[in-house]
Amino acid sequence: RIKANLNPINRSRFKSKRIEIYDDIWFAKELKLTNDPFSSSQLIINNKDFKLFNENDKTKIKTKWSSLIFEDKLTVPIGPRNINLDRDYSSRWGLGYDKNKYDGIYLYRNFNTINLDKNNNTQIDLTTKFNIQRGIEGKTKSFSAEDESVLANKIEQDSKFLDFIGFESVITSSFGKWDYILEAETNSIDIDKLEKILEGETYLTKNIYIKKQDNLTRRDDISFFGIYRKETRNGSLGQILVNSAYGVTYDLNKIKLKANNASENKISLGYGRYESSSSNDQNQLIANNRLNLYLKQKNEYSIWKPKSEATLTKEFKYTPNIINQGLYWVIEGNLDFFRYEDGSKQDLFLIKSGPKLIIGEFKNNFFDYTELSIYPRFKFNYGKSPFLFDQVVDKKVIEISLKQRIYKPFALKFSGEINIEDDISDDEKLINETIELSWNRRAYNVSLNYNYDTEAGGLFFKIYSFDFDGLGEKF
Description:
Blueprint (H helix, E strand, L loop, with lengths): L1 E4 L7 E3 L4 E3 L2 E10 L8 E13 L2 E13 L3 E11 L8 E6 H4 L1 E7 L3 E2 L6 E9 L1 H6 L1 E2 L16 E2 L6 E11 L2 E9 L7 H4 E15 L3 E18 L5 E19 L3 E17 L7 E20 L21 E15 L4 E15 L10 E14 L12 E12 L2 E10 L10 E11 L3 E8 L4 E8 L12
Parallel strand pairs: 1-28
Antiparallel strand pairs: 2-4, 3-4, 4-5, 5-6, 6-7, 8-9, 8-28, 9-11, 10-11, 11-14, 12-13, 14-15, 15-16, 16-17, 17-18, 18-19, 19-20, 20-21, 21-22, 22-23, 23-24, 24-25, 25-26, 26-27, 27-28
């Protein structure tokens, strides 16, 4: 999917010939702003008929027309803007590729956020998807046969006109200290096969404790969840359909930073009812209540750390931050305890450990950055799950990730897992392999990635946020 995240900017520099302020509302016929603290600015946002105001304690921007100016060389129009600075903002038009769900290339269009109440506490975001490749070829392999269940194998068949269009909607709402999220998506609008085209998930969540100190962050949340026809990946088994699920979870997350050690702790307790494929027969749906206790401990130790620049300077053209170079050693251990209504149980102990090496400042033109991590991972389990989606697989794996700076802004990254179990065929030894090509600048990033297992990819654009002191240089 092509996606542009125009995220809120912590600090920005702006200029305009004239700004008029009435009752805390800012007006400007033309206003240029940049997130780049240095000049010449790598990215400038040019806005026509700019208006900034506060509505219900939310800061908003409206423009009649806006454009992105890259390096003073390329101008890309992005049209009228209606932005809530307290939320991430995505591009209006985009292009994506997903072979399994949309039969390949699809076009999508985001609409303006719709407020469902006068206080703007409940909002809905709508996206229309046009399945271009499905429409051109007149064929689809995203559905099982008409008289077969949703678990049956997907077959090639003629696509209908209603299969050329899909929708995605996100409803968010806040009341008191609770937040509600509902996400729903269809890859067709043919209601005759509604159980095969609709998927969604919903959450009602509340933060019950939060603590932030200089070197410690802790957060406790409780969430009620519901899932309908959501696929989840289980290693070499691929995508497994969870036909429905509902329940409650409690999550505790704690991150602690020390001079030579960063640690992460997580405790999660969940109970719910699940309907998914049986581990004995993937074409059979079964339902079972499940209790799960999950414990995680992760430590990253600094073994070697060279001296680096103290602050970011204009010589850093290709990175938004100082690179934390060094040799690190990562140790992670997980415990999972599953108990099922039918008396089944499954206990899992996971351990992975290995080195992570980061060298280079991303400053010079050639090969001035390498990030390599190699983590052997081992799973030990007792018992068996009645479901396929949470059955322990891939017990001996080596996780590999390599990102290499090639030339100036270009970098190439590969990640994947090598299955080293004895009874695995050659075709299944490399799983979850992903490749990414990125164009890196101080003020923004463009990346293209593709996952060979899921046969889905995307082009992503990101504007970085800087927190700098002073007024910056004139631009």
